[in-house]
Amino acid sequence: MVKPCSFKGGIHIPYNKDRTTGKTAELVPTPKQVVIPINQHLGAPNKAIVAVGDAVKRGQKIADAAAPGPMTVPVHASIAGIVKKIEARLQSNNTEGLCVVIEADDAVSGDEFMPPLDPFACNKEEALERIREAGVVGMGGAGFPAHVKLNPPPAKKIDFIIADGAECEGYLTTDEAAIRAKTDVVVRGVAILMRITGVKNGIIGMEDNKAVITDASSGASINLVEKLEKAVSNLKNELKNKFPGEIEVKLCQTRYPQGGEKLLIKALTGREVPPPPALPADAGCIVQNVASLIAISEAFNVWDIDKNEWSNHGRPLIKRGLTVSGGACGAPRNIVAPIGTVLADLPAEYFGVDYGKLEKIVFGGPMMGVAVPHLNIPIQKNTSGVNFFTAAETYADAEGYCIRCGRCIKDCSMRLYPVLMNNALEAADFDEAERIGLMDCIECGSCTFNCPARIRLVQRFRVGKFKLRNYVAAKAAAAKAKEEAAKAKG
Ligand code: SF4
Ligand code: SF4
User: Fold this and answer.
1) Best of 440, 447, 459 to mutate for ligand 2, by most ligand atoms within 8 A of CB?
2) pLDDT tens digits, residue range 279-310?
3) 290: domain range?
4) How far apart are CA 73 and CA 10, in angstroms?
């Protein structure tokens, strides 16, 4: 067994993955309606391209770029039915956004998928266009368009394609379930990325708590590393000289936030991503979450596991796996749900929520997730989990005063000085906050987790980064105005 690699800093959190680890993801009962946000990506906004009353097939495009541009990603109907409403709804990031509400209708059925495309024979432009058309975004985080990530400027030399299977957040086991159920598809996804980018080195990274898992129903032991290595070998045999390079499986120490892109790159390659605005490509790496790799692979052709054959169509991103867990969830499980499924629409007993114990609903994990006010919120492309937390699992202590213990500095995975950043923000000294690295903060919450004074450092950094961006923009605008005034004076 290889020695697990890691990074400096970080923390051990209560992982609480035992509730769902080893559980196979189950497809939820088809919902009677879905609520699909038309913007689920980072980039230029979309516009709806269907109208109320339209009949739509599953897989049909329902929203696309409002104006042409590279940072655009379409969204698709995840069930067949009738468009009932197009209206603003609360989304999983707690902001309102335009959503297309589709109601299932017996009179409408069928799929509108894409014809199959061989990713190992088509050219790069065709492959990137296919990934965009399929609506694939980063499914582990902010929803960055996958086709843009795979097409870095020519000056940036990429040496590694990294599959992020770390899943360092507490409670979540959806990536583990996906790797286990679709091992071959994950590996194929890595190979497709290597083919598109011309990169010869692929790495599949996982935390070492996923090296061997126990099947929850049979009790059988499953070695995921061996399973992945076997899938690599199978794909090599299938593709022969079209296999694009070497793919290795590497384990990282179980340490939060190991799944952060920069930390995973450091752990797996030893490379450092420079400070913002630099991206992983500046360290010669492209990182994709395993769920996105599956979506990319299935955009070209879908392997039908039940029939054991290719289904001869490329499927857009219309469903995803997620973990539903938390102490107030009576039936924690991994599920696969159509994008736009509203959990409140599923049968109550499906999750067995104990409302007497429920303190907080969180979309995502306990460290980086977003607390939401109710369950009438749709599952989106980047929803990796929904947690029903009890009071004991939430963080409600009153804030105290900083005792200058330095623990936040020790725990910061990005080697920052959280206490000093907080002081600078309290003094509204944005120049100082920027100088000491506020924009480098990945908002992992490690500093907050162990702060004995219970200071909500990460929440302040989230707001602080927003204010700092506005401050920098205002400063630039003022400097430009001054320059123009000076020019006008002659
Ligand atoms: S961990 Fe909390 S109390 Fe300690 S230095 Fe940092 S902010 Fe202050
Ligand atoms: S300062 Fe930012 S990067 Fe560092 S531990 Fe806190 S939240 Fe994480």
Assistant:
1) 447
2) 999 999 999 999 999 999 999 999 988 888 99
3) 124-310
4) 34
